[in-house]
Amino acid sequence: MAQVKGKKAGFGAVLWDYLTTVDHKKIAIIYLVAGGFFFALGGIEAMLIRAQLAVPNNDFLSAGLFNEVITMHGTTMIFLAAMPLLFAFMNAVVPLQIGARDVAFPFLNSLGVWLFVFGGIFLNLSWFLGGAPDAGWTSYASLSIASPGHGIDFYAVGLQIAGAGTLISGINFVTTIITMRAPGMTYMRMPLFTWTTLVAAILIVFAFPPLTIGVFLLMFDRMFGSNFFIVEAGGNTIIWEHLFWIFGHPEVYVLILPAFGIFSEIFSTFSRKRLFGYSAMVFATVLIGFFGFMVWAHHMFTVGLGPTANAIFALATMAIAVPTGIKIFNWIATIWGGSIEFTTPMLYALAFIPSFVMGGVTGIMQAAAPADYQYHDSYFIVAHFHYVIVGGVVFALLAGLHFYWPIITGTMLSEKLGKIEMVIFFIGFHCTFLIQHWLGLWGMPRRVFTYLDGQGYNTANMISSIGAALMAIAVIILLINIIKTLVKNEKVGTDPWGDGRTLEWSLPIPTPYYNFANTPLIRGIDALALEKEEGDGTIPAAGPVEAIHMPNNSFIPFMISFGLFVAGFGALYFASGKPWAIDAVANLPEKPWALYVLIAGLAITFISMGVRSWKDDLGYYIPKEELEADLRELEARERGAK
Amino acid sequence: MAEQNHEQLTESQLKYLRMERTKEMRIQMISFGLMIFLTFIAFALVALEIDKNFVIPIVIGLAFLQVVLQFYYFMHMKDKGHEFAKLFILVGMYFAIAFVVCFIMIVWIGNPI
């Protein structure tokens, strides 16, 4: 019930509202703030890496600390920055795009976000509690079992908690998109961001269980004395690599598909045209999602699977280029002949096409298994995946931030600062990573903390580090832009870009907490553009105004996540100094309280779940009168604006 | 939404609903009987001490049949509105089997192929 009405709510009330909210729009803001925070952390780690590598024989970071920094940079950026930021846009936009009042399971949505927040905090607390994980973001078991101290334990438990949150959110979005579309919103009328979210959520549902299993095996090996990966006891470390990459490859499509969706929306909005080849785009999205599961072993060509296995996975990998190429050509055809408007999101989208294609081309090069033996573990790989992840996902996140900012906050980011930020980021990005292709081909290995003078790496590394600094400057400009916009707080009205094509732009800004007073009726693809061209520019209602059933806010998701967070510490220190523990932690001082912390944490979680199960919470109704009053007020406001 | 279905059913609608439910019940009973019979065959094969190489594949085959019957008749996969659940289960099974086969081939047996 706790809808904070009126502007003068105290800080405590606002905080409590956000801690207990089940509203997808507020959860999007939590994802955005927490994801943005971790993005900054990962960015600082990137700066440290580039500072260390700027000059040869540098001792700015020690070798051990460098390993921790690269591990945390990768893990943070993938799990705690890119994915949550995409979830922020999914939460903010997808229910509005399909004409739903909320996601299918608002309670689980809240649980998902708090699990992610606590998992992320847990992982990053490792910096203060005896050292971060240092086995790379892939955490291959042969390294991670041997890694001394508790660093890897933070990785395992933190990812387990955050991963549970992601899996829950994935299930939530699949259900939402399949079951909660408004009347007339058929599958082939869904906006492309909704389609890509659906496919990405399906990938999450199928890809996260292998990760969960892999991380569970690692947890049991490191904390509870099992032998899955311990070779001298009959274990096999290759199992980890397979499980990790069965998850890991679909994971990169979980990241890039929503990015494709955001760009598709931006291209058609700012070219003022329908997306070219809509059905081909949908088909390509589904196909990429399906192929994504067949290619995991291309990360393991040098493991020694044998030539037949390598050939199969090489071929499957190259096949993915076909649907991706379809998409690239469709985007170009969308721009072609359009009435183009060069806004900040559009600039990012235009920059994305060549940048991402470059990353794709090096991807095909690596898919050729014999050639991959040369590229393996060199900076060529680093350059490749930064080209697709920064040039694809991060560009999409920044473009999406500018594009959807009005929907999320009700204000407009400054276009002038936005364009400056875009140009600096674009130059910095290519400056950092283009040269790394050559560094790789010249033989510079990745994940090594320094290099010797006189090997010909000096200039190239310096250029790369300067580029990284430029990207940091661009992000700082974005921050200034955000702060300025929030302080100014100039509210905008419906359809602030003026060219909104899909349902989310038809809503008043700020969007009411029930989203749609009437259930909308969708008459075709690009619902709002259709109504602008053929109707009066408003979405017709599917029925009369009726009382709306809403879920109550709940503090329970926070408590469930907090319980797991506490239990995590118990599990983490459980093996310390135990005689049966692995060598990495056997010599540490024993922590007799660990078991009790583990039990207490699990008790908090299960009691919270029990409260949720046994106490009926039937939600509440928004009375018809309130909705009608809101509609009248909105009408008056729009008349006033004219 | 459940709270909206308060309208009274007409006579013929009620009759139709009854007929559907009787049919459903009959199908449930038949499949239940069939499943017990399948279980009986499996037990009998083992009890008769027939050659192992013959019994094991047959019992696994029967088990598979049982699973299909379970899913389709007891867990309502045959009913309308389960297309996505069906698609998900089948795709998930496809991936899981592919992964298991892969693990057996390249991890467990372990010879490079």
From TrEMBL, chain A:
| Keyword set includes Transmembrane | yes
Task: Alphabetically list the UniProt keywords.
Answer: Cell membrane, Copper, Electron transport, Heme, Iron, Membrane, Metal-binding, Respiratory chain, Translocase, Transmembrane, Transmembrane helix, Transport
Q: In which pathway does it act?
A: Energy metabolism; oxidative phosphorylation
The membrane topology noted for this protein in its Swiss-Prot or TrEMBL record is:
Multi-pass membrane protein
Q: Which CDD domains match?
A: Ubiquinol_Oxidase_I
An annotated GO cellular component: plasma membrane
Q: Which residues cross the membrane?
A: 28-49, 69-94, 106-129, 154-180, 192-220, 243-263, 275-297, 309-333, 345-365, 385-408, 420-439, 459-483, 555-573, 593-611
The family annotation for this protein states: Belongs to the heme-copper respiratory oxidase family.
Q: What is this protein called?
A: Cytochrome c oxidase subunit 1
What species was this sequence derived from? Phocicoccus schoeneichii
UniProtKB/TrEMBL annotation, chain B:
Which species does the entry assign this protein to? Phocicoccus schoeneichii
**What is the protein name stated in its UniProt record?**
Cytochrome c oxidase subunit 4B
The record's principal subcellular location, in a coarse class, is membrane
A GO cellular component term found in this entry reads:
plasma membrane
User: What InterPro entries does the record tag this protein with?
Assistant: Cyt_c_oxidase_su4_prok
Localization, per the record, is: Cell membrane
Record keywords: Zinc included? no
What's the domain of life for this entry? Bacteria
Which gene is the coding source of this polypeptide chain?
caaD
Write one Pfam family the protein is assigned to.
COX4_pro
Transmembrane residue ranges: 27-48, 54-75, 87-110
Which keywords appear in this protein's UniProt record, sorted alphabetically?
Cell membrane, Membrane, Transmembrane, Transmembrane helix
Does the record bear Chloroplast in its keywords?
Answer: no
**How does the record classify its membrane topology?**
Multi-pass membrane protein
